[in-house]
C-alpha cells in the first residue's frame, strides 16, 4: 500500500483521513469530518461527562475502551444483547474483562462457577513506578514496572 500525508491529512491507498491534535475533544470537528463513531481510547475521558465532549464536537456515538464509573458497560458475547441504540456513550469495559468474561460466561452457563482466580500479565504502564515502592492508588501498583512479564 501507499501511505503519504498532506498537511493535516493522512492518505492511505488514496483514502484521506483527517488527523487532529487537540487536548479538548469538543474542539475536534468530528461532525464536519463526517465521523459518526469515536473510539475514546486515551484513558482520560472515561466518564459520560468527559466522553460527551466528542458528541459536542459532532460525533454521534462514543465507545470508551476502559471501565467507566457511569457509562453503560458492555462486553461482546456476554451482555451485548442489552445494548440500547439510544445510548450515545458506552464503555467496552477493560482489556482484562474482554479476555476473561466471554470464557467465564460460557463455562458458567454450561457448568457453573463457584469460585475463580485469575492473573493478568501486563506490560509496563505509564503510571507505574520504575522501582518497588508504595502506591497510594493500589498496593499492587507498587511493584516495579520492569518486574512485569513483557
TrEMBL record:
Output the Gene Ontology cellular-component terms: cytosol
Query: What EC identifiers does the entry list?
Result: 1.2.1.12
GO MF annotations for this entry?
Answer: glyceraldehyde-3-phosphate dehydrogenase (NAD+) (phosphorylating) activity; NAD binding
> Where does the source fall among the domains of life?
Eukaryota
Q: Which UniProt keywords apply?
A: Glycolysis, NAD, Oxidoreductase
Q: Which Pfam families match?
A: Gp_dh_C (PF02800), Gp_dh_N (PF00044)
Q: Where is this region: Disordered?
A: 129-150
Associated pathway: Carbohydrate degradation; glycolysis; pyruvate from D-glyceraldehyde 3-phosphate: step 1/5
Enzyme class, UniProt record, top EC level: oxidoreductase
Q: Name one GO biological process term.
A: glycolytic process
| Annotated Glyceraldehyde 3-phosphate dehydrogenase NAD(P) binding domain residues | 1-95
Q: Which family does it belong to?
A: Belongs to the glyceraldehyde-3-phosphate dehydrogenase family.
Describe, as the record does, how this protein assembles with itself and its partners: Homotetramer.
Task: Supply the name of the protein.
Answer: glyceraldehyde-3-phosphate dehydrogenase (phosphorylating)
Gene symbol here is G3PD
